[in-house]
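Hello,

Our lab assistant flagged a job as stuck in the queue for most of the afternoon. It eventually completed. Since we weren't sure the result was trustworthy after the delay, we are filing this so someone can double-check. Below is the sequence as submitted and the structure that was eventually returned. Let us know if re-running is recommended.
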Amino acid sequence: MGGEAAYRFALILPGFFAAVSPLAGFNPKHSPAALQGGCSPLPLPLKNLRGVPVWAISGAEDIVVPLSVVQAAIDELKAAGVDIRLRLSWKATTTTSGRTPTLIRSITNGSCNINATKTRCSPAVRRAAPQIGRRTIRILFFAALAGIFCLHGCASASPNRATPKPGWTVYANDLYGYEIQYPQGYALWPTGPEGGRDGANIRIALADRAAPAPVLDIRISPRTPESEFPGPAASSGQFQAEANEVLIGGRPAREWILFWKSTGEIAFVEILADGVVFQFAAGPGPADFHASEWRQIVATFRLTGG
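-- returned structure --
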């Protein structure tokens, strides 16, 4: 099932495991290939792993799950207060080498010591175990894990997932029930207060982030009612405002565009669609938002439920 599933089970079963040691474990939200394959981000909150020691292992030359993707998950878990450490194993890839390193010290609650080949429990633990047979216990345990994995894990892509445009990446968020695409040369990341960046608000910008604009901010939750969406300020000495009725993801939406009167270039765009607010700060340059790649990005947004 992999290191990603090790994280996933520990998060959805807080308090069940005494310790976790994911091999090439990662959060699918940091891997475009995993998201495109139908994987959902790790379940929140990440603080569910607090108090559980985590020993993450990665191969320095792993090309299937690169070290940078493993490190991204470690960084966000540390930010959530999780006691986690990374061990770089042999130079071979952790995902293809077929070897599991020995866990030198106990990673459980003191009753069991786990190494590469077997688990040894103290007599007290063995006496306390239900007398229904080890084989039966194993069957029931792994059947339960398989069921949980099917509900929460990286099953095959949902038939409702959009097919990405050539060279574009799909970001899907099952927690808030939406997806959006963006092309090469752009980056997407959740925004908001530390510890609450779960996709309720996201930002899309040029990948190099060399300038504060252009940038597209999207607020998915909480939803904004039409009565609280005034749009940009009306035309003034510097700006000319334009209001449009448009379609976003096949649904009607309200759009406001502010132009600089002096140059005719776009200054700001605000769109409300089904309570979702899109705010585009243009920066210098564009004069036609509807013909821009930014408008194509907005057009790929769609609600998927949840």
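-- support follow-up --
The delay was a queue issue, not a problem with the job. The result is valid. Helices lie at 2-12, 32-36, 67-79, 123-128, 134-152, 293-299. DSSP finds six helices and 14 strands in the chain.
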